Amino acid sequence: MRVAQVDVADPAPGEVQIRQKAIGLNFIDIYCRTGLYPHDLPHGLGFEASGVVEAVGAGVTHVRAGDRVAYGQGPIGAYADLRNVPADRVVRVPEGVGFDQAAALMLKGLTVQYLFRQTYRLKGSETILFHAAAGGVGLIACQWAKALGVRLIGTASSPEKAALARRHGAWEVIDYSREDVAARVLELTGGQKVPVVYDGVGKDTWATSLDCLQTRGLMVSFGNASGPVEGVNLGILATKGSLYVTRPILATHVATAQAMQSAAAEVFDLVTAGKLDIVIGQRFALEDAAQAHEALKSRRTTGATVLTLD
Ligand SMILES: NC(=O)c1ccc[n+]([C@@H]2O[C@H](COP(=O)([O-])OP(=O)(O)OC[C@H]3O[C@@H](n4cnc5c(N)ncnc54)[C@H](OP(=O)(O)O)[C@@H]3O)[C@@H](O)[C@H]2O)c1
Fold first, then answer.
1. Fold of the CATH domain 124-247
2. DSSP 40
3. Spans of the chain, pLDDT less than 50
């Protein structure tokens, strides 16, 4: 990665030009940088940021110059100080929500929104398993589960991360670097196991996650922090109890402007109601994005990471 100077054109019809204030770092940025999710080189990185509208292109009516805005799931290239973004990705940031929080919740918060409200709609009486509970998506999930009355069993790789997840609403946290996750889930649920597992870790936790599911339970495999899940024999779903599996992505859940606006509104409402605190665990200057990637990849971060601009 290196910083490059490029010209930014005036916003085209349907685009918003944003003077960015903060950029959200996500694990998907690592997949894009390493080529797991390929893009034609050279390319920018990043999908979520916040800032102030500089100008709007023809036909854009829901925001105007001077508005505080944020976006998630934009075209790749959020690591920038000024850029043009399709207007249907852009939402207003409510009073009281800072630029750092807004930058960190548009991809991670909206992911928890669809995982908990769409992929498997939690009602409030369930006990669930959520891996990497002290991470960016994880700490949002812990708090959202608590707000719903759901008992979230998290996993984390150290006692410090486990304690952090507990402080943010996890009901129990299993240290998967030293404990037997399936055995602990069986114990914690009185032998019932869980109806749904949310797994962003991927390769290393796939088999264990299936072992934690009730008959006809749902495995939500939504990420690859340890590497992608490959070479699966579908028969495993039969032998483990007629399980379901899905591999969802945010893009298909916020495909329209209306879906994006309503999902974002739900997340912002939780923040402004004080039920969701977007925890910024660490900040790096945009120029130090390489160090930020190193920290995220080597499991040295907790909560969300933000790239800052002067
Ligand atoms: N499908 C979607 O729509 C979508 C959207 C957003 C995010 N995601 C996925 O959600 C997951 C979390 O994203 P995030 O940005 O919030 O990252 P994060 O959770 O802050 O960081 C990843 C965490 O995964 C855990 N992990 C386990 N094995 C690992 C390994 N071998 N290498 C690195 N980390 C490992 C680490 O926590 P411990 O040290 O506690 O194990 C690490 O802190 C990622 O898989 C991401 O791709 C998916």
1. Rossmann fold (3.40.50)
2. P
3. none
- Segment (H or E) for 221: strand 213-221
> Could you tell me if 23 and 309 are in contact, meaning their C-beta atoms sit under 8 angstroms apart?
yes
Q: What's the angle, vertex CA 93, arms to CA 90 and CA 95, rounded to 5?
A: 165
The domain segmentation of the chain, as residue ranges, is: 15-106+255-308, 124-247
Nearest to 130 by CA among 167, 165, 179: 165
Helix (H, G, I), strand (E, B) or coil at 127: strand
Residue 296, phi then psi, degrees to nearest 5: -65, -45
Q: Residue 310: what pLDDT?
A: 77
CATH homologous superfamily of 15-106+255-308: Medium-chain alcohol dehydrogenases, catalytic domain (3.90.180.10)
Provide the sign of the torsion angle of the four alpha carbons 57, 62, 68, 69, taken in this order: negative
- Spatial neighbors of 232 by CB under 8 A, at least 6 apart, are 206
Q: In whole angstroms, how far apart are CA 210 and each of 147, 245, 298?
A: 26, 9, 26
The atom number, within ligand 1, closest to the CA of 248 reads 1
pLDDT for res 73: 87
So what's the pLDDT on residue 41?
93
Q: How many CB atoms lie within 10 A of CB 163?
A: 14
Give which of 253, 220, 218, 227 is closest to 109, Cα–Cα: 253
Tell me which residue has its CA closest to atom 46 in ligand 1: 223
Separation of alpha carbons 270 and 225, rounded Å: 27
- At residue 159, the pLDDT reads 98
- Measured at the CA of 121, the angle between CA 70 and CA 26, to 5 degrees, comes to 35
Closest CA to ligand 1's atom 35:
225
**Is 154 close to ligand 1, i.e. is its CB under 6 Å away?**
no
